[in-house]
Structures are given as C-alpha cells and as structure tokens.
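Notes from the 1:1 (GR / supervisor)

We went over the backlog. Supervisor wanted to see one worked example end to end before approving the batch request, so GR pasted a single chain during the call. The sequence is below; no edits were made to it. Supervisor asked that the structure be written out right there so they could see what the output format looks like.
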Amino acid sequence: MDGADKALEREHRLNQLYLGIISRYKEYIEEMEHISIAELPSLVTPRKELIVKKAEEIKNTFGNYGFDSHFYEASINAFAFVRDHILETTMPVQFWLAAEDTLKFGIGDVIDRNILLCSLLSALGNPSAKVLVSIKEDIRRVLTYYELNKHAYILDFNSGFHRFESKELLIKSLSLDGESTAYEFNESLYNEIA
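Structure output shown during the call:
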C-alpha cells in the first residue's frame, strides 16, 4: 500500500470509528439535540459572519448590487450554490445544524440545506424568505420560498424553481388536506399553515 492508499484507508477507518461512537450515543445525542418545532427559527441565521460573507460573494457577481434589479437572479444563484455545493445526507441521528454549520461543513440533510438557502435569501435582502415543510401520508416535502413583486417563488431541490402568481396559489399547489401538516419559518417567525 502506498502513502495515498494508506491515508485513504486511515480516513475510512476513522470515519467508521466516528460513526460507531455516534451510533453508540445516538439516544443521548438526540435527547440533548431536541428542539421544538417552534424553535426552528433560531437555526435561520442570515446575520452570521459566514452567511453574510457568502451573500456578499453572490452580490459581488452583479457589480453594484441593487435589490430591486438583482435579487431575482441572486436568488437563483444562491439556490444553485446550495444545490450544487452543499451535499445532501441523511444523518444516523437527529441532529440540528444552524445555517452557518451547513455552509462551513458543506453537507446537511434536506432541512439543513433549506435553512441555509433561506438564510442566504434573507441576507441578500428578502425577509419574506421562509422554509416550508409539509407532511402528508408520512411523506415530507421541504422547500424554500419567497415573495417578490406580488409573486411567490418556490426553490425546491427536487423539482427546481417555480413562480406562482401569489402565495395563496403556491400553498394551493401543495395539495394540503385535512390529514396534512404544514408549517413555515424563518429567523423571525414560525407559522402553522395546516
């Protein structure tokens, strides 16, 4: 085995050890990591240094960034960045990551990635950005949306970028019924939709 193969084997074994330790303490970690759904806004952090820095990088691609003329394109760039550069994973334990943690490590589950995207959109100047979670028949859908010029825009890592004439039509598109649960949040609010 050469030096590069030994280094890869060492990294693989170390990752297996970390996974074993995490699995051993899974119940304890999940108990200590528990936050209520209403506390989710604390994970959206548009004013944290790493989020502000990434938002500034996105703004700088426009030269003299102006919200009215550039936010729409900036939102597409933020969506593409998270979609293409933040790996999606399923953790072996329920573990909450704040937006800056997801950005720092470049990996997170579907909620973590949406929390990061929401934080970036807010840092780009749109406080209407929210993470929306809907659950119907044990199927959970997580997406980010924002409102701009009387329209609503969904940014969904599974289905892409969609425009609606209003937030009401966006909510209607989710096909929520009496058996559905849905909520939205950002850094300043948590709201049950269904």
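Supervisor's comment: The chain has a mean pLDDT of 89.
Batch request approved.
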